[in-house]
Amino acid sequence: MRQHPQSAPPNPGAKQTFAMSDVARQFQELVRESEQEAPVLYDTVIIGGGAAGAGVLRDLASRGNARAILVDRGPFGGETSSKSGKAIHPGIRYLRMGFHRILLAFKFRKDPKLKQSFAQNMWSAWQDLRLVWYGTRERNLLIETCGDTVEAMPNIVFVYPDSPESKWAVFFGISIYGLLTTIWAWPKPIARFGRVELFIDVAAVRRKLPHLGLNKILGAIRYWDGKASNDKILVLKAIRDAYFRGTPEYPLRALSYVELERYEWCADRGGGYFLVTLIRRFESAELPERIVVKARTVTNASGPWLDQVRNRGAEPDRKKTVVYSRGSHLEATNRFLHESLSANPSLQVGLVPLNPERQHYLRPFFQNGIWYIQCTTTDRAHTDPDEILPQEDEIEELLHSYNELVDDKWKIARSDIFNVFCGVRPLASSGPGEISVKDISRMFKINPHRSGDGLVFDLINVKLTEFRWAGRVLGDLIAKELRQQNRQLGKSTTHRLKFLTVEDEERFAINRPDHPRGDLNFIKEKIRHYVDYQMVCNYADYLLNSGGLRDALVFNEADRCDLDQEVLDLMLEEMGTLLQWSHQRRQREWQEFEAAYSRNMAHCDLSGRRSIAAEKCAP
């Protein structure tokens, strides 16, 4: 029996897992509940298992007496929330956008692409400055409560002659940005965030970072921010934490590979409830394909698919409430980069060139015992959330942006790229007179609307940094609605609430400093751990989104990166054995990984490779 979260927190052991077997068991429990004379009435059903949905479920779990279900049609954190730049930050560019809007409002600056009124500019400025202010708090809280999953890291912003702001304006803005952290950390200031360092010319930067080959810059400034070692794992930990805090009286369910089919308000003498139809997408010969549950509210946290989900109600409105912004990412390494970053911690710093148009972030990451560079673009308009592929010009743009900053030995080539992926972020539609996606506020938005007499909450544009904050705000709105139905929820306690851990979590953390690279027994044990505690049930998702690809990464005779087929086979074999995959299922899992990886234009070529594990029959 799981303990009540407001008493001593549960101590998950080997028998308290977070696995696909738990999903099947929960689905079976929902079937049994539906057959009871008085089925459980849930406070909300959350659609979407990314950062937004995770934040809502964890907030409700912290209240001690909520009943909620979270569902996702695929793996948790498998889409937008696993295809980010892994930044945990308030956002220096959002601070710049806020000041830019104020200058526009008072006509101290002109921008022909932003033809908006004084009130519109001031409102957008308030939203962006509010995001930075509270985002600073959220970054500090995540670093404090998430263990090693979120950590601080230094970044350096480089100012060019064509940068959108002058050198001294950038220095002033980032100094303010750094000061906010000290204010939020009071009375125990975090010294590293207060160490903003100015470099007034090229020579000053070179003395600090001799590996940079700088020609055009006017100056630079160092500041501290945060990063997640892996964005998907951060989301998984939040959902798992909430799930572990459930009790038989107040169940908190988390089901992957379960999709919303429709929802409809059903009125009765007590006020009414939603009938929510869920479809099972995982394989099972014993369980029914559909189940209907009752809920007081519906929470739509489906990210880019928000409009599709909102129109699965009994009264679809066909409104367009989101627009899309796409960002592409490449990951590259070679023996020189890995060994140099390993040997010199002072070089483990993010590089942020202040370009006139799109922002780039060029950050070093350590996963599975290997150092690599992740290069990230921001803000390109997008249309179809189901077709998200990086473009050739974006890859060239990122290579150029990084190589322009470093000297010849540190430059990366196509042969160094081992992974490329693309993510799409839903932004709140600006309505009439729509503006460019790069100018839309990044402040999350909650759109409540009625379906019948029931309340549906659409949660839009939740950044990874703000998922706890957004979850708390939405949790308060759910609690307010439930009070109208004579249902009283407890108060949110997620502020400084540490994430519950599981057995051996530190041992298998992907950013552990002493990762035993190349140890095949360790890889097998780690896969078992991830199957038991990280809901691993998909080969491609594990490799591409959970960091497993790094275990197969090797350096060839030319010291460039390549993939070790033996390790890829080992991971497929172990996963297939643990999950009892058939011969056909193993082949399908390999083919899906091969297809997904081949689309991303990485240098490592899988064409023509045979997977021995995929050809074996399951025991």
UniProtKB/TrEMBL annotation:
The record, for InterPro entries, names: FAD-dep_OxRdtase, FAD/NAD-bd_sf, G3P_DH_FAD-dep
Cofactor(s) recorded for this entry are: FAD
Q: Name any one Pfam family assigned in the record.
A: DAO
Which residue intervals define the domain FAD dependent oxidoreductase in the entry?
Answer: 43-431
Q: Which GO terms describe its molecular function?
A: glycerol-3-phosphate dehydrogenase (quinone) activity
> From what superkingdom does this record's organism come?
Bacteria
| Gene Ontology biological process terms from the UniProt entry | glycerol-3-phosphate metabolic process
Give the UniProt keywords, A-Z: FAD, Flavoprotein, Oxidoreductase
Q: Which family does it belong to?
A: Belongs to the FAD-dependent glycerol-3-phosphate dehydrogenase family.
In Swiss-Prot or TrEMBL terms, this protein is called: Glycerol-3-phosphate dehydrogenase
The source organism is Nitrospirillum iridis
Taxon lineage? Bacteria, Pseudomonadati, Pseudomonadota, Alphaproteobacteria, Rhodospirillales
